[in-house]
Specification:
Blueprint (H helix, E strand, L loop, with lengths): L1 E6 L3 H11 L5 E7 L2 H11 L3 E4 L8 H19 L15 E3 L2 E3 L5 E2 L1 E6 L4 H10 L3 E4 L4 H12 L4 E2 L1 H8 L10 H12 L3 H8 L3 H15 L4 H10 L4
Parallel strand pairs: 1-2, 1-3, 3-7, 7-8, 8-9
Antiparallel strand pairs: 4-5, 5-6
Helix pairs in contact: 2-3, 4-6, 7-9, 7-10, 8-9
Length: about 240
């Protein structure tokens, strides 16, 4: 079951999203928030798999809430010291708690955050993704696409609207030189799945995959899968 938290200051919008998602047998809405700070508090309490976050809310916007959630996770990673590139040291299928965020057994930082908003400017899109969002969709997204996005995020994929892709493409290519194998690894990250599954698709051992993954992280200047995928899209590497 995929647990979802909805953060939006309009009750009718929340009601509509709840109605769409709760019709699915594999999705459960565990909490609703009307502001960024409330969303951050409810994430700590309910530990959802996916957060749907609006950008403009009273008392602290969505970007600030995303930063708060990711900063909490970064503090936990610094203190935990047991969840490396491959997520080693994770003792359960659910994952290891990291200061209010969680690293799942697949190595993904939880919760997965999807911005769902009416704002499609380059500034808003880049700010949200830079803060740590894993996806960006507009509120005119068809219901079937929203449902698919929730499932994709929970599976580790990145979900971006056409406007978001255009905004990222406009940033140009930075000087990052990846080997063909490292490019393959980066594409596997974007596709989602575990290290073991990705290694099998590339016909290499999981250890070899993790070695390439560590090099990708180093070259991109990131420390987790979501950040690697964001940077890859920003720099047109995939």
């Amino acid at each position: 079951m995929i647990s979802v938290l909805i953060a939006d200051d309009h009750p009718l919008v929340r009601d509509g999203i709840v109605a769409i998602l709760t019709r699915e047998s594999d999705i459960s809405v565990v909490a609703e928030a009307s502001s960024g700070p409330e969303a951050a508090a409810l994430v700590a309490r309910h530990d959802p798999d996916v957060v749907l976050m609006d950008l403009r809310m009273p008392g602290g916007d969505g970007v600030e809430a995303i930063r708060a959630l990711r900063a909490r996770g970064a503090q936990g990673r610094a203190g935990a010291g047991s969840a490396g590139v491959g997520g080693s040291g994770v003792g359960s299928s659910r994952g290891a708690r990291l200061g209010g965020a969680e690293v799942a057994a697949s190595g993904l930082l939880r919760p997965r955050i999807l911005v769902l908003t009416t704002y499609d400017t380059d500034h808003d899109i880049r700010a949200a993704l830079a803060a740590g969002a894993d996806g960006y969709l507009l509120k005119d997204t068809p219901r079937a696409e929203l449902i698919r996005a929730v499932r994709d995020l929970a599976a580790g994929r990145t979900v971006l609207s056409a406007a978001a892709l255009a905004a990222l493409a406009g940033r140009g290519v930075a000087g990052v030189a990846l080997t063909p194998r490292e490019s393959d690894v980066l594409r596997e990250l974007a596709a989602g799945g575990t290290n073991r599954e990705a290694a099998a698709r590339l016909l290499v051992s999981e250890t070899t995959f993790k070695t390439h993954l560590a090099r990708v992280y180093e070259k991109l200047g990131v420390s987790d899968r979501a950040a690697a995928v964001r940077v890859a899209y920003e720099r047109a590497l995939i």
